[in-house]
């Protein structure tokens, strides 16, 4: 597990594109996006440049200027989509020296090496110590207490702060309510409590102020973990084919702006696309989806009018909307950097390997202690 890629916070963490190659040796640029817009007829032609047992090719060579492929967020506001010929990867591609060079060029602390093909996901899980699967009630409820207390303090800050300190109060509040998402996330993974009903109730309540329907999110999140980095089936930050990017002006404009000035809030688009359409769920999931949607709409139709009644429309903006945008800044940040590293491929279902995808299919982010 030590070979998991580790992302250095504060360094070049703005890598946001995935590279694939065809058997003909010509690299195709695929830009991450949220929707399943891939052409299934073409997915079989795609092979990873970083998968065991295949002829390997790489898009990013050390001597090529990095800005030709990925623009750091501090230097530019848009992402370029390009297609370039690539040279075959050197025979030392699996060496520690090569991985070190690749990780330095991307701004990572470490790049994980490919797994042997005979390693199964079951083998990885069985290698973990049993304590990682144990429920810690004290830690779970302490996280609830910390988040609720932080949120209460932040609302007092907003109420008392002069106008010039409001951005600081909003940033604090957005960070505090991100804790509610973390709690709901742990409930969805069955790591919060031994009681499933308690997890469902806590997860639903934690997600309600965020206007996140808990069950729809849980179903899609489970699918994301089951199909990590699988073309079409994964639900997190899908790639978009370069051909579609070039041929669809509306899509192109959405990506240029979405991965440019609106990048810190791209998770809002994902939230809207995946969690409110009942048709996206299986028949046996629909009942729970509707219950979650009812809870979220209840918060909107009861909570929002109460805020407006007490503090007016400006109060709703101050006490809910601005903190909510702060939460989505974090949501966009930690989901995007986890799922869009350029060396990690998306693969078709025929080529996809569960162990490889789950272990090396995302990056580990080291955030500062204060956060």
Topology:
Layout: E1 6-8, E2 18-21, E3 27-32, H1 40-43, H2 96-106, E4 108-110, H3 121-126, H4 137-160, H5 166-188, H6 196-207, H7 214-226, E5 239-241, H8 242-247, H9 249-258, H10 266-275, H11 283-339, H12 354-360, E6 364-366
Helix pairs in contact: 4-5, 5-6, 5-11, 7-11
Give the structure's gist in a few sentences.
The chain is mainly alpha-helical and 371 residues long.
Textual characterization of the structure:
This protein is 49% helix and 6% strand. It is built from twelve helices and six strands. It has helices spanning 40-43, 96-106, 121-126, 137-160, 166-188, 196-207, 214-226, 242-247, 249-258, 266-275, 283-339, 354-360, and strands at residues 6-8, 18-21, 27-32, 108-110, 239-241, 364-366. The chain has a three-stranded mixed sheet. Helix 7 crosses helix 11. The protein is globular. It starts with 5 loop residues before the first strand and ends in a 5-residue tail after the last strand. One of its GO terms (cellular component) is membrane. It is found in: Membrane. Residues 162-370 form the Fatty acid desaturase domain. Keywords: Lipid metabolism, Membrane, Oxidoreductase, Transmembrane, Transmembrane helix.
């Amino acid at each position: 597990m030590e070979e998991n890629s580790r992302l250095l916070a504060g360094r070049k963490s703005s890598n946001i594109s995935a590279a694939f190659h065809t058997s003909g040796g010509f690299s195709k640029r695929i830009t991450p996006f949220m929707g399943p817009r891939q052409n299934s007829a073409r997915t079989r032609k795609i092979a990873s440049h970083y998968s065991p047992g295949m002829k390997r090719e790489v898009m990013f060579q050390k001597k090529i200027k990095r800005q030709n492929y990925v623009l750091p967020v501090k230097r530019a506001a848009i992402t370029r989509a390009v297609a370039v010929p690539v040279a075959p990867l050197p025979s030392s591609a699996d060496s520690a020296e090569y991985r070190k060079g690749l990780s330095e060029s991307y701004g990572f602390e470490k790049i994980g090496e490919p797994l042997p093909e005979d390693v199964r996901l079951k083998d990885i899980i069985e290698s973990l110590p049993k304590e990682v699967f144990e429920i810690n009630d004290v830690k779970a409820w302490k996280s609830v207490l910390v988040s609720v207390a932080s949120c209460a303090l932040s609302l007092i800050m907003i109420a008392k702060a002069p106008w010039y300190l409001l951005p600081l109060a909003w940033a604090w509040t957005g960070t505090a309510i991100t804790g509610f998402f973390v709690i709901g996330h742990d409930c969805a993974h069955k790591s919060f409590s031994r009681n499933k009903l308690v997890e469902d109730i806590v997860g639903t309540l934690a997600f309600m102020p965020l206007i996140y329907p808990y069950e729809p999110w849980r179903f899609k999140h489970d699918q994301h973990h089951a199909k990590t980095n699988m073309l079409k089936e994964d639900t997190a930050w899908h790639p978009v084919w370069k051909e579609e990017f070039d041929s669809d002006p509306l899509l192109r404009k959405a990506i240029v702006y979405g991965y440019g000035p609106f990048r810190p809030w791209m998770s809002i688009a994902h939230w809207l696309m995946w969690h409110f359409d009942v048709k996206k769920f299986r028949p046996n999931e629909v009942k729970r989806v509707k219950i979650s949607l009812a809870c979220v709409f209840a918060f909107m139709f009861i909570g929002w009018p109460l805020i407006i009644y007490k503090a007016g429309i400006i109060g709703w903006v101050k006490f809910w909307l601005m903190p909510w945008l702060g939460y989505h800044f974090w949501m966009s940040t930690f989901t995007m950097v986890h799922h869009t590293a350029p060396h990690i491929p998306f693969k078709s279902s025929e080529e996809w390997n569960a162990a490889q995808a789950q272990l090396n299919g995302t990056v580990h982010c080291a955030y500062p202690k204060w956060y």
